[in-house]
Design goal:
Elements: H1 27-33, H2 36-46, E1 54-58, H3 64-72, E2 77-82, H4 85-94, E3 101-105
Parallel strand pairs: 1-2, 2-3
Length: 117
């Protein structure tokens, strides 16, 4: 268990990126050093994105894949969710004025969307 306890009984704990909030600023640097950018690009290419698609990334962390999806297909409506508010704040800073992309704090087992949305 972590110190990041949820506010309601139906939600679970989460682990912050790197396991500690203080290490979060180094997360993106480490992913670049480890060559994850190529992996992210491959994942986005396999998604067969098209204008008008609605894309949801559950557990988006600092938004590396979510922002790549939006840049690869500007006509898609893209949402990234994560329970970690510090990671979401970092993800939001990466948006740089892109329209049609947003980040929401949510747990995978309790998404704030209607069924079939």
């Amino acid at each position: 268990m972590t110190e990041h306890h949820p506010h309601t009984a139906d939600q679970r704990d989460y682990l912050p990126a790197f396991g500690k909030d203080a290490l979060l600023p180094f997360y993106d640097l480490l992913t670049r050093v480890l060559g994850m950018n190529r992996t992210y690009d491959t994942l986005v290419a396999q998604a067969e994105l098209a204008p008008g698609l609605r894309v949801l990334e559950i557990g988006c962390g600092t938004g590396n894949v979510t922002t790549r999806v939006k840049r690869a297909e500007p006509g898609a409506d893209v949402i990234g969710t994560d329970p970690d508010p510090l990671a979401l704040a970092r993800a939001q800073r990466k948006v740089h004025g892109l329209a049609g992309i947003r980040f929401e704090r949510a747990y995978a087992q309790n998404l704030p969307f209607a069924d079939g949305e």
